[in-house]
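From the pipeline queue, job 12 of 40. The input is one protein chain; the requested action is below.

Action: predict structure.
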Amino acid sequence: MLGIIAAVLFFLAFLINAAEISTNDVFTSTNVMLIGLALLALHVAGVGSGWAARGRRR
């Protein structure tokens, strides 16, 4: 789920940058891209995957 959100944020950052949309200082394309990178890093780290990293039960 975090990977999909990161992809959407990357697409929004691309649109902001390509269309040269003027935004306030918080929602610049660089800031949106950095939020997407943080979400992608959390996704790769396994946060929010729903799988528990527990040992096997026998």
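Job complete. Residues 2-18 form the longest helix (17 residues).
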